[in-house]
From TrEMBL, chain A:
GO BP: any one term: transmembrane transport
Keywords in alphabetical order: Cell membrane, Membrane, Transmembrane, Transmembrane helix, Transport
Transmembrane feature ranges: 12-37, 73-94, 106-123, 155-178, 208-228, 259-281
Locations listed in the record: Cell membrane
Name under which the protein is recorded: Sorbitol ABC transporter membrane protein /mannitol ABC transporter membrane protein
Gene source species: Rhodovulum euryhalinum
Start and end residues of each ABC transmembrane type-1 domain: 69-280
Primary location recorded for the protein, binned into one broad class: membrane
Family, as annotated: Belongs to the binding-protein-dependent transport system permease family.
Automatic annotation (TrEMBL), chain B:
GO cellular component: plasma membrane
Family: Belongs to the binding-protein-dependent transport system permease family.
Main location: membrane
Protein name per the record: Sorbitol/mannitol transport system permease protein
Calcium listed as a keyword: no
Domain of life assignment: Bacteria
GO BP of this protein: transmembrane transport
Membrane topology: Multi-pass membrane protein
Transmembrane regions listed in the UniProt entry: 12-36, 72-96, 117-137, 143-163, 184-209, 240-261
Protein keywords: Cell membrane, Membrane, Transmembrane, Transmembrane helix, Transport
From TrEMBL, chain C:
Keyword vocabulary terms for this entry: Signal
Top-level taxonomy: Bacteria, Pseudomonadati, Pseudomonadota, Alphaproteobacteria, Rhodobacterales
Protein name: Sorbitol-binding protein /mannitol-binding protein
A GO-annotated cellular component: periplasmic space
Native source species: Rhodovulum euryhalinum
Cell location: Periplasm
Source organism superkingdom: Bacteria
Gene3D superfamilies documented for this protein: Periplasmic binding protein-like II
Family, per entry: Belongs to the bacterial solute-binding protein 1 family.
Signal peptide: 1-23
Keyword Lipid metabolism assigned: no
Length: 290, 276, 437
C-alpha cells in the first residue's frame, strides 16, 4: 500500500517528533551522565574534578538504596494490583444499567483530576491525621485508638493515596473496553447455561486482556516516578520506609545538593526504567499487535 | 441490548455503585465542605463540622494572600499551550506511523514512551542550567515547551491508536480523487479522528494542569501556575484546614468542571488502542 | 519644531533611565510562616512609598530552601530577595553568593541589633543577611494543668529527668491532654532542632575535634532513648509526623501540657485570637542534663540579596524597611504588639508597649543573649552552631539522622539501629567530602 513517496513523506512527518524527543532525551541525559562522573556539589563551588565511578559506588552502597528499590517495586506493584482489580470491579459495575449513571461515573472518575500535591495534602491532613483527621475522629467515636497511618503503615498509606488517584484511570479504560464487548456473544453464552463466573472468566476477561495491559503499561510509567505524594506526606520516612528511587535521587541531588551522586542515581534509575520498559514492551507486544 | 432489566436489580446496582462512587468522591466533597467552614470548626469531628455555620472567609483569606487569577491564567496558558503545541508535532508523526508503518514503527513508539521514564528529579540541575542559559526561567514559554516534551509520547501514542482505527481505504479514495497529503490530513483524517483528538486534548490538559515538579521548580513568580499556588498552603502555622481546603478547591475546580462536562468524551475516548 | 522634538526626546530618555532606577519589579521568596505573611500584607505601604513592586513567592520551608538554594547556587537570578536562615547566611556569604549588607545607612542603626544575631548572620565580620526575627528555645507549659497536678513553676533550670517526672504527672490522654508535645517530623530543621540541644544537654556532640562523627556514642544513645521513651509514653499519637507547626496547633488547641520549642511561637500562643490557651500558658528554660551548655537553640530568619540579582539597590531598600525599627512599630500598631517580630532589636525590648503586650519578652531576650553557638557542647568541637553544624554537609547528615530517629520514634527500628545507621551515614558523608582522610 505504501509507496516510496509516501514513505518519504512519512519520514518527514515523523521527524519533528523524533528529533524533539531525541533532543529532550539526549541533552539532559548526556549532561546527567557527564555530571555523574564529577565531584559536583552545588553547595561547594570550585572546580569539579573527574572522579570516575565514585558517585555510582556511593549511591549503590547507600544504605537507603536497597530499601528504595524494594519500596519502588512494592509501590508500583501494590498500586497496579489495587487499581487493576478495583478497576475491573468498577467497570463491571458501571457497565450495568442503573439510574443516575452519569453522576455516578463522574464521581468515580473525579479523583483523577486532582493534583497529586493536593491529594497528598488532603489525605494527610483531613483524613489520616490521628488527632484531627476523619479516620482519627471515627476511631475515637468508636472508642478505639486512632491509627497513626504515616508511622504505623507508611508505605501502605502512600499506596492507598496513589491508588485512589489512579483507580479512575484504570476504570475508564477497562469500562471502555467492556462496552465494546459483543453483547450477543454474552447472551448466547447465557442461553447455553454458562454461569456468570464462567462468562466472566472465559469471555469478559480475555476481552479485557488488552485493556489491562494498557493500564499496566501507562500506569507503570507514571508510578515509577511517584514523588509529590511522598514529598508532602512522609518525606520518604519514617527512616526509609517510603523512600522510592525517585525520592532517593531527590534526596541526593536536591536535599544534599550532591549533583554528582544525584546524577549517578538518575542514570541508574533510567537504566532500570528501561529494563522495565523492555519487559513491558515484550508483554505488550504480544498483546497489542493487531 | 434486548434484555429488560428488573427494576429491583437496577435499584440494587444503583445503590451499590452509588455507595462506592460516594466513597471515591468523598475526599473531594469533604474539602469542599471544609472550605466553607471557619478554621476552628474545620478540625472538629465530622458531624460537628456539618452542623457548624458556613462562611466564605477562607476564600477571602486565600485570595488576599495569593493572587489566584494570575496563577489560574498561567495554568490555563501552560496546559493548553503545551497540549496544542504537542498536537502540532504529534498529528503528523502519528499519521505517518499509523498509515505508513515501517519495521521500526513499534520500536520507535516504545522508545518514545520510554523517554517518559527519565526521572525529573535526576535531571533538574542540567535543565535548570539550560533554562538559565536560554533565559527561560520563570517564563510560560519555557514551561510550555517542557510540558509539551513530557507529554508528547502520550499524545503520539493516543493519536496513533485512533488513526489506526480509521480504514485506510478512505484515505486511498481521497488520494484517488487527487487530494494532496496536506488536504488528506486536514480534510479527511482530522475530522474522522476528531473524537480521538478531543480525548487526547482532555487527557493532556489534565496531565499538564496537575504536573507539579517542573512547574514548581522552573518558575518563581511571573509564570507560576496553580501548583505553586498550592505549595504555599502546604504546612503553614496554626490552623489551616479551611484555608488549605479553599486553596485546594480553587486549584482543582477548573479541571474538575472541565472533566464533568467532557465526561462522556473521556469514557468513550480513552482507549489507548485497547479496543479492537 | 526640531527643537521641540529634541526636548521631547530628552524628556523621554530621562524618563526611561530615571524610571528604571525608580520603579523596579522585585521577586521575593519567603517562607509561609505568620510573620512573613504579615510582612506580605504590609508591604503595599512600601510599594506605594517607593514606586517599586514586589512579586511574592511564598513557599513551605523545605520547598523554599530547595528552590532558593538551587537558584542561588546555579546563579539563576530568579529572586532579588530571599529568606534564609542562620544556617545558610554565613556559609553562602563566604561563598560569595550574597551581597554584603553593611551599607544600609545610619538610620538603620546596626548597633540596635542583638550582637549574637548579627554575628550569626555574618561571615568573616561582614553582614550578609539582615534579621527579620530571631529565636531561642524554651519550655512552654500550661499553668492550669500545673496547678491541678500540684506542680510549681521551676525556679531554676531543671534536668530532663525532672522534666520527665513532671510530664508523667500531667499526662491525661482520657481528657485529651498529652504530657508533652515535641517535634518528631524528620528534618534537620524539624526534629533535629529539638534533638540537637537535647543531645548537647546529655553531653553529646556531632563531631570530635578531628571531624569524626560521634553519633554512636553513649551520650547520643542516652539522649535518644530518653526522647523515644518520653514521646511514646507521654506524647500525642502520630508524634513522628508532628513538626513545629503541628505541635503549635496542638498546644494552641489545649492538647499539650508542655512543649519545648521556639521562643518566637510565644507571640502566637499568647495571642487570644489564635490560641485557646493564651491566658494559661507560661514558660521556663529548656531543660539541661549533664551540662547546661547548648540547651537552648539559636535561629534567625533573615532577608538577603543574592549576588545574582540585578536589582540590588531596590532590594536593599526593601530590606532596610522590612527589618527596621519603624517596621516593628508598624506591625505593633497594625497587628497588635504581641505579633511584632521578636528577637532582633534592643529597641523592641525597650518599648513599653511591646513589653506590656508580650509577657515573655524578658525571658526571650535573656535566652537569645545566652545562646552561644561558638561554644555549644560539653566537650570541645571544631564547629559552630547549637542545633546545627555550620558546614554545607550538615543538611544531608542532619536530614538522614532525623529520618532515622523518626523511624525509631515510630517504632520501625530500635534506637541502636537508628544510631548505628546514622553513624555509618555520617562517616560516609564526611569521607566523601574529604574531612576524614
Amino acid at each position: 500500500m505504501a509507496t516510496k513517496a509516501s514513505r518519504a513523506a512519512a519520514r518527514l512527518m515523523i521527524s519533528p517528533a523524533v528529533l524533539l524527543l531525541l533532543g529532550w532525551m539526549i541533552v539532559p541525559l548526556s549532561l546527567t551522565v557527564y555530571f555523574s562522573f564529577l565531584r559536583y556539589n552545588l553547595l561547594m563551588p570550585g572546580d569539579n574534578p573527574f572522579v570516575g565511578w565514585e558517585n555510582y559506588q556511593w549511591f549503590v552502597t547507600d544504605t537507603s538504596f536497597t530499601a528504595a528499590m524494594v519500596n519502588t517495586l512494592l509501590l508500583v506493584g501494590g498500586v497496579l494490583l489495587i487499581t487493576v482489580l478495583g478497576g475491573i470491579l468498577f467497570a463491571l459495575l458501571l457497565d450495568q444499567p442503573m439510574w443516575g449513571q452519569g453522576v455516578i461515573r463522574i464521581m468515580v472518575i473525579a479523583p483523577f483530576f486532582v493534583m497529586p500535591t493536593v491529594s497528598g495534602l488532603v489525605w494527610k491532613n483531613m483524613f489520616m491525621n490521628p488527632v484531627n483527621g476523619i479516620f482519627g475522629h471515627i476511631a475515637q467515636g468508636l472508642g478505639m485508638a486512632p491509627i497513626d497511618f504515616f508511622s504505623q503503615v507508611p508505605l501502605l498509606s502512600i499506596i492507598g493515596i496513589v491508588s485512589w488517584q489512579w483507580l479512575p484511570f484504570a476504570t475508564l479504560i477497562l469500562l471502555t473496553a467492556l462496552q465494546s464487548l459483543d453483547q450477543e456473544q454474552l447472551e448466547a453464552a447465557e442461553m447455553d447455561g454458562a454461569s456468570w463466573p464462567a462468562r466472566f472468566w472465559f469471555i469478559m476477561l480475555p476481552h479485557l486482556a488488552r485493556a489491562i495491559t494498557v493500564v499496566i503499561l501507562i500506569q507503570t510509567i507514571f508510578l515509577l516516578s511517584v514523588f509529590a505524594e511522598i514529598l508532602v506526606t512522609t518525606n520518604g520516612g519514617p527512616g526509609t520506609a517510603t523512600t522510592n528511587l525517585t525520592y532517593l535521587i531527590y534526596v541526593s541531588s536536591l536535599l544534599q545538593y550532591d549533583v554528582g551522586m544525584g546524577s549517578a542515581g538518575g542514570v541508574i534509575a533510567i537504566i532500570l526504567a528501561n529494563i522495565v520498559a523492555i519487559f513491558l514492551m515484550r508483554m505488550i507486544g504480544k498483546n497489542l499487535d493487531a | 441490548m434486548a434484555r429488560a432489566t428488573a427494576p429491583a436489580r437496577k435499584a440494587l446496582t444503583t445503590a451499590i455503585a452509588g455507595t462506592l462512587a460516594f466513597v471515591m468522591f468523598f475526599p473531594i466533597l469533604w474539602i469542599v465542605v471544609l472550605s466553607f467552614k471557619s478554621e476552628v470548626d474545620a478540625i472538629r469531628a465530622p458531624l460537628q463540622v456539618l452542623s457548624s455555620g458556613w462562611t466564605l472567609d477562607s476564600y477571602g483569606a486565600v485570595q488576599e494572600r495569593s493572587d489566584y487569577f494570575k496563577h489560574f491564567w498561567n495554568s490555563v496558558i501552560i496546559s493548553l499551550g503545551s497540549t496544542f503545541l504537542g498536537l502540532l508535532v504529534a498529528i503528523p508523526a502519528a499519521w505517518a506511523m499509523a498509515f505508513v508503518p515501517g519495521k521500526q514503527t513499534r520500536n520507535v513508539l516504545m522508545w518514545m514512551l520510554s523517554t517518559k521514564m527519565l526521572p525529573p528529579v535526576g535531571v533538574l540541575v542540567p535543565i535548570y542550567l539550560l533554562f538559565i542559559n536560554f533565559g527561560l526561567l520563570d517564563t510560560r514559554i519555557g514551561l510550555v515547551v517542557v510540558l509539551m516534551l513530557i507529554n508528547l509520547p502520550i499524545i503520539i501514542w493516543m493519536l496513533y491508536t485512533y488513526f489506526r482505527e480509521i480504514p485506510g481505504e478512505i484515505l486511498e479514495a481521497a488520494r484517488m480523487d487527487g487530494a494532496s497529503l496536506r488536504e488528506e490530513v486536514l480534510y479527511v483524517l482530522t475530522p474522522m479522528a476528531l473524537p480521538g483528538i478531543a480525548s487526547t486534548i482532555l487527557l493532556n490538559v489534565i496531565l499538564a494542569w496537575n504536573e507539579a515538579f517542573w512547574t514548581l521548580n522552573l518558575t518563581a513568580s511571573r509564570a507560576a501556575p496553580l501548583t505553586a499556588f498550592i505549595a504555599s498552603y502546604s504546612s503553614p502555622e496554626g490552623l489551616f484546614y479551611a484555608k488549605l481546603s479553599a486553596a485546594s478547591v480553587m486549584a482543582i475546580a477548573p479541571i474538575l468542571i472541565m472533566g464533568w462536562f467532557s465526561q462522556k468524551q473521556l469514557v468513550r475516548g480513552l482507549t489507548f488502542g485497547a479496543v479492537k | 519644531m526640531r527643537l521641540r522634538n529634541a526636548t521631547v526626546a530628552a524628556t523621554a530618555i530621562a524618563l526611561v533611565t530615571g524610571g528604571s532606577a525608580v520603579a523596579e519589579d522585585l521577586t521575593i521568596a519567603t517562607v509561609n510562616n505568620s510573620d512573613m505573611i504579615i510582612m506580605q500584607k504590609l508591604s503595599p505601604q512600601w510599594e506605594e512609598a517607593t514606586g517599586h513592586t514586589l512579586n511574592w513567592v511564598v513557599l513551605e520551608e523545605n520547598v523554599l530552601r530547595q528552590r532558593v538554594t538551587t537558584d542561588i547556587a546555579t546563579k539563576g537570578g530568579s529572586f532579588d530577595i530571599v529568606t534564609i536562615g542562620a544556617y545558610e547566611a554565613p556559609i553562602w556569604g563566604k561563598q560569595g553568593w550574597l551581597n554584603a549588607l553593611d551599607d544600609l545607612g545610619d538610620a538603620y542603626d546596626y548597633a540596635d541589633i542583638f550582637e549574637p544575631v548579627r554575628n550569626g548572620l555574618s561571615a568573616d565580620g561582614t553582614l550578609y543577611a539582615v534579621p527579620f526575627y530571631a529565636e531561642s528555645s524554651f519550655t512552654f507549659y500550661r499553668t492550669d494543668l500545673f496547678e491541678k497536678a500540684g506542680l510549681e513553676k521551676p525556679a531554676e533550670q531543671i534536668t530532663y529527668d525532672q522534666f520527665a517526672e513532671m510530664v508523667a504527672q500531667l499526662h491525661d490522654p482520657e481528657n485529651g491532654v498529652y504530657g508533652t508535645c515535641q517535634r518528631g517530623k524528620a528534618g534537620w530543621g524539624e526534629n533535629m532542632a529539638f534533638v540537637g540541644p537535647m543531645v548537647n544537654a546529655f553531653g553529646g556532640r556531632w563531631f570530635d575535634m578531628e571531624w569524626n562523627p560521634t553519633i554512636d556514642s553513649p551520650e547520643w544513645k542516652a539522649a535518644i532513648t530518653y526522647y523515644v521513651d518520653l514521646m511514646n509514653n507521654y506524647g500525642p499519637p502520630g508524634a513522628s509526623s508532628n513538626g513545629h507547626n503541628e505541635n503549635r496547633a496542638l498546644f494552641a488547641d489545649g492538647k499539650c501540657a508542655t512543649w519545648v520549642d521556639a521562643t518566637s511561637a510565644a507571640g502566637y500562643i499568647f495571642n487570644p485570637n489564635e490560641s485557646s490557651v493564651a491566658d494559661k500558658t507560661d514558660f521556663f528554660q529548656a531543660p539541661k542534663q549533664v551540662t547546661d551548655k547548648g540547651t537552648g537553640w539559636f535561629w534567625a530568619w533573615a532577608l538577603a540579596v543574592p549576588s545574582s540579582s540585578t536589582k540590588v539597590d531596590a532590594a536593599k531598600e526593601f530590606l532596610a524597611w522590612a527589618t527596621s525599627k519603624d517596621y516593628v512599630t508598624l506591625v505593633g500598631e497594625s497587628e497588635g504588639w504581641v505579633a511584632a517580630p521578636p528577637g532582633t532589636r534592643k529597641s523592641t525590648y525597650e518599648n513599653a508597649a511591646y513589653v506590656e503586650a508580650a509577657p515573655f519578652a524578658k525571658t526571650v531576650e535573656t535566652s537569645i543573649l545566652a545562646a552561644n553557638p561558638a561554644d555549644p557542647t560539653k566537650d570541645p568541637v571544631p564547629y559552630t552552631g547549637i542545633q546545627f553544624v555550620a558546614i554545607p554537609e550538615f543538611q544531608g547528615i542532619g536530614n538522614y539522622v532525623g529520618q532515622q530517629i523518626a523511624a525509631a520514634l515510630a517504632g520501625q527500628q530500635s534506637v541502636d539501629q537508628a544510631l548505628a545507621n546514622s553513624q555509618t551515614f555520617a562517616v560516609r558523608e564526611m569521607t566523601k567530602a574529604g574531612y576524614i582522610k
